[in-house]
Amino acid sequence: MRILLVEDDRLLGDGLQAGLTQAGYAVDWLRDGEAAVAALSTESFAAVVLDLGLPKRDGWSVLQWLRGRHDATPVLILTARDQLEDKVRGLDLGADDYVLKPFDLDEIAARLRALVRRAHGRPEPVITVGEIELNPAARTVKRAGQPVELTPREFDLLHLLLQNADRVLTRRVLEEQLYTWNDAVDSNALEVHIHHLRRKLGNELIRTVRGVGYTASAASSLS
Amino acid sequence: MTATPTYSLRRRLVWLLTSSVAAIWLLTSLVVYQRAHHEADELLDSQLTQVAETLLAIVAGGEVDHFVKELHENARRYPVPITFEVWRTHDGATERLVTSPGHSELETGTTLGFSEHPHQGTSWRFYAAQDNEAEYRVVVGQAHATREKLAREIGLSLLMPAALALPLMALAVWWVVGRTLRPVDVVARQVGALDAQALAPLDESGPLPDEIAPLRTALNALVRRVTEAFDNERRFTADAAHELRTPLAALKVQAQVALRSQTADSRQRALMQVMAGVDRMTHLVEQLLTLARVDPANQASPPPPLNPADIIAAVCAESLPQAQLQKQSVTVDGGPGCTVAVSATWLQIALRNLVDNALRYAGEGAHIQVRLAPSGAGCSITVADDGPGVAPALRAQLSARFVRGEVEDEGCGLGLSIVARIAALSHAQLELGDGLPRADGGHGFAATLHFSEAPGQA
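Structure tokens for the assembled complex are given below, as produced in the milestone run.
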């Protein structure tokens, strides 16, 4: 899942990028508000982790701009200011969550999972499609109750497909959500991952929509 | 609350006004009484004269017997406050014709006009008159006590209404004073309603008298100053919280990354980041402590004048290892000697921060020049570099706490705040401007401290 991290502090940004990548996110890290606005206006992210004190354009302004264009991307605010009015202002401007520095990496990861889940309108933490169960927090997948070993990239791809079950995801959307700017993407990498997923989870789950992309659905296993 | 002695302005005003009015009233009363007495005297004198002339006319007209008879009849019914005698001088012999009833013979009779004599044991006033032929002589008299009583009654009847008016006037004064002082009450209530947590200036819309308006203006000025200082402190706390929490968050996150790293390489990298974070925190904490130490209370007063050349040389020497690492050069341009009145420690801190900033921000290979020059009666010390410089619009904000230039850097944003504070406490000016010329035609950054003449050197 691709996350945009906007944090001007070099050490903290570096740590968050490394930590969230360890937690299975594809993290793009930007260090000022202008760059964040530029990135958000052209690409889509599963969530934004936004620091408030940013050079060039502060977090408030980025948030306001984002909500002003009716972009519902979940936003998690990072701040060192614990004044109540700051929290209220952030939430009122359209932030979805608020974390006070210093924080725990696990907490950030958990909150991001919750944000993404809620953004997809799912109250339950475990995604179930047919006989496949995916637990985003534990990053585990079960097929008919039996654990299945997946590589991080395969897991992320499955997560995306199950999250948007019964919808067709284009190659571009999938690649955008899976890879950061730093990742060198092989032109047939996606096909390779899909192939591996079908081998591990059965051919019925993921269907190719020719010329468009892929879709995952429970119904396909019945047909 | 200790009971500080207070007094009511209203009570004091009423008391002072009423008592001074009463004093003036008493004085005027005395004069009025005197005047009334005098007028009564004149009136009674003219009455005496009239009675004497009338008697004389009656007697000369030969009506004496009839008059005496009538007189005795009346005297039984109405006591007359006037006594009289009538004398007749005929052929050299003088005889008393009439004496007023109830009075023994008067011992007077010789001098004409007014005179004072004792009569029946008290003091009396007499008037004697005679006709043109000096045949008849009339003497009329009146007891002083009677006259006094009359004069007093006239005087008092004039004063009575004024005496009654006095308490009424006190009431009026009480009311007027209360009404006039109402704006004071209003201001007092407004001040009483001020919230110490959220000080707000008093409402300046209501009209106030000229005497009280300055009080409200001064109060509002005070409220604004206190609010500003309060806000400043609050901002500092918020800023410091931000500046401390962010590196702490970075440390924690990097440590967690290190703990979870699957490979030795990534663990090593994260641990190096932790080390860098600790170094940065150390620098920040040291700068915060320095800022706190630059306090007027810690300064020997007044600082002895000193020549900054030695301190400049020492600070530059300290910076050399760092400069060599970054391939930078540091030169000192010492002018003719001059002295400044600043604590040596503070000057050292200020210069160290300026040179440190230059090393940090001027970039690799930059040249840094520290220049000492006499300016006016004092000294100016400039630290200039040929680095990227700072846009003029941004310079003004630089000396605020926690503001960094728009550069990729790990500085904590306190250096220039510390220098600015030292400058303010040493009566020096900190000027931020263009530095040394760069090869591309632009200018680096320069910070100049202008110290005025060392006191005691004039």
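Chain A touches chain B at residues 9-12, 14-16, 18-19, 22, 53, 55-56, 78-83, 100-106 (CB under 8 Å). Chain A has a mean pLDDT of 85. Further analysis is deferred to the final report.
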